[in-house]
Amino acid sequence: MKFSLRSLLLCVVVSAGLVVLLIKAGEPPGGTHKTQLIIKGLQKSDVREIMGEPQEVSEECWVYRSNWRTGWTQVVFDDDGLVAYVDAEGMW
C-alpha cells in the first residue's frame, strides 16, 4: 500500500467536516446564538423576529423544532404574553 499525502489530506478534511456537522446537528433549533437572544420579558413579536415561525403554538408556549437538528427550543410565556423562560434542548 502506497502512502499518499493527497489521500491523507482528504481524509482529514472529510473527518473535520463530519465533526462540525455533528456538533451543529446537536444544537437546539435556531442555534445557541439565537436562543441566547431570547431573554425574560421579551414580547411574542420579538421572539418571532428572532426565531421565526414556531412549529407548535399555544397561548402560553411556542415550540421550535428542526428537521435536521436533534433538539427543540421551547419558549414559555406568562399571562401578559412576555417570555417567562426558555428551554433549549440539544444533543449536547
User: What Rg do the Cα atoms give?
Assistant: 19 Å
Query: In the CATH classification, which architecture applies?
Result: 2-Layer Sandwich
Number of domains: 1
Strand % is: 15-25%
CATH class: Alpha Beta
**Which class best fits the helix and strand makeup?**
alpha+beta
If you average the pLDDT, what whole number results? Answer: 84
Order of helices and strands: HHHEEEE
CATH topology title = Beta-lactamase Inhibitory Protein, Chain:B, domain 1
What's the story with the biggest beta sheet? Answer: 4 strands, antiparallel
Q: How many beta strands in the DSSP annotation?
A: 4
* End-to-end gap: 39 Å
What is the helical fraction, as a range of percent?
A: 25-40%
Number of helices: 3
Dominant shape:
rod-shaped
Low-confidence spans: pLDDT under 50, at least 5 residues? none
**How do the strands line up in the largest sheet?**
1-2-3-4
Protein name: Lipoprotein SmpA/OmlA domain-containing protein
